[in-house]
Amino acid sequence: MGDIRQSLLPRDVLSAAKELLYHLDIYICNMVQSGRQAPQVDTKTLDLVEEFILHVPKDRNAQVRRMSALQELHLLEIMCSCFQEQSRDTVRQLVFSALFSLQGNQADESRMALLGKLVSMAVAVGRIPILECAATWLQRTHRVYCIRLAQVLVDDYCSLVPGSVPTLQNIHSASPRFCCQFITAVTTLYDLSTEELTPPLELLKMIVSWIQEDPRLVLITFLNTPLSNSQPVSSLDVTPLGGLVRWCVKAPLAYRKDKKPVMVNGTGENEQEAGPLFSALHLSVLQVFMLLPNILTEKGLFGRLALLQIESVAALISDLSRLLDQADKHTHTISDESHAASQLALDRLAQALQVAMANRALLCSRGKGSRILNLLQLILSGPVMYYNNIHTPPLSFSPHAAHSPIASHPTLPGHAPHTPMAPHPSPHPQYPAQPFMTGLPFPYRPGH
């Protein structure tokens, strides 16, 4: 396609971009029809995309070509039509990749800006082919850029335009794959560490309603991903389970009534409004864990694949220990509501870990399991000690306690019998000691 550059140069920016999209579609169609294995778009074609669609000049002395806002809107409409009219998914995916795969150069910022506008428009006008391509992009791209795309959609539909949330909510039925990836991205973005990184109430309501309606939604990417294709190390998790557990556990402390209210769309939202939503979300996450044995067994992965990563659990426990330590340091000014919030966070952590381990969503080797138990015990025993990762040397109690997560499960062949760990006496009266690994002692309490 390199020979068409001279014909594009005299055209205005919109006409040149439209012509290049037309030639790009033909070029990729021919490449796919040739039966070439793993077709790749050549470098010259990518250079044309950067020059005439992303407007990154290839010549230092060349004049920068820019579109007006109206021209850019027309380009987005043209792109929507191109993807909608192309019937072959393979061609659509290759065109999308040629336009938006990050190359590690100065054109990437232009790619991200155009991508955010295109996906936002696709949500608004229901262009399912673009959402499907974007779902694949989210699965293959570095998580830093994935959360940037998610932030654009949250800003557009949950913050900037009042009443536009139902439009975004429709992606649940329009493209479950994209919806699943979007949930994974926003749970990665909003880690509840600050007010700015606490999910807007409208977003929370939407995600809770999605998962309540269809708990399997959070497993869509996992169910549709060939097991032979390993996820890139820096990509999003294959499910949002880790992020959802983090939300549920940290929420009681992030939304405490005695803290400054979280601002959403200019109005204060506190624990009274968010609390029941996180409670419902916690129950839904536990229900998803309980679906996993049959799903993993069907795939031949029961006991072999962990959908809740142990590194994620270790990071959550470390975060929770810091939050509880901060609450301890201010007990002279914090009300009983703070103590109740801390207890609820501990209850949810215990419930999530036990249900995940019972259903083999979380797998622990002896060494890693004992280190997780160490961190859990340190939360209760105080003073809180901070651990940056899971490789902290274990304490002196028995490692066998970590290997048998649920007392009702039979002892695995070749492993020592499990001896339940006695509850550790807690010097903090507001945090009663919890028998974390001896069954399911914590009933779900929807009233919290």
What does this structure look like?
The chain is mainly α and 448 residues long. The protein has a domain at 240-258 and 273-381. Helix content is 58%, strand content 1%. The protein contains 19 helices and two strands. The protein has helices spanning 5-8, 13-33, 43-52, 69-85, 89-100, 108-125, 128-140, 143-160, 165-169, 171-174, 176-189, 201-213, 220-224, 241-254, 271-298, 310-329, 336-358, 366-381, 400-403, and strands at residues 262-264, 267-269. Strands 1-2 form a two-stranded antiparallel sheet. The longest helix has 28 residues, at 271-298.
Structural class, please? mainly alpha
- Range of strand content: under 5%
Order of helices and strands: HHHHHHHHHHHHHHEEHHHHH
User: What about the largest sheet?
Assistant: 2 strands, antiparallel
- Multimeric organization: single chain
The portion of residues assigned to helices is 55-70%
Task: Show unreliable segments.
Answer: 260-269, 382-448
Number of strands: 2
Average pLDDT: 80
The number of helical elements comes to 19
Shape: elongated
In short:
With 448 residues, this protein is mainly alpha-helical. Helix content is 58%, strand content 1%. InterPro entries: INTS15.
How is this fold's topology laid out?
Layout: H1 5-8, H2 13-33, H3 43-52, H4 69-85, H5 89-100, H6 108-125, H7 128-140, H8 143-160, H9 165-169, H10 171-174, H11 176-189, H12 201-213, H13 220-224, H14 241-254, E1 262-264, E2 267-269, H15 271-298, H16 310-329, H17 336-358, H18 366-381, H19 400-403
Antiparallel strand pairs: 1-2
Which key features would you list for this structure?
single chain; about 450 residues; 2 strands; about 60% helix; INTS15
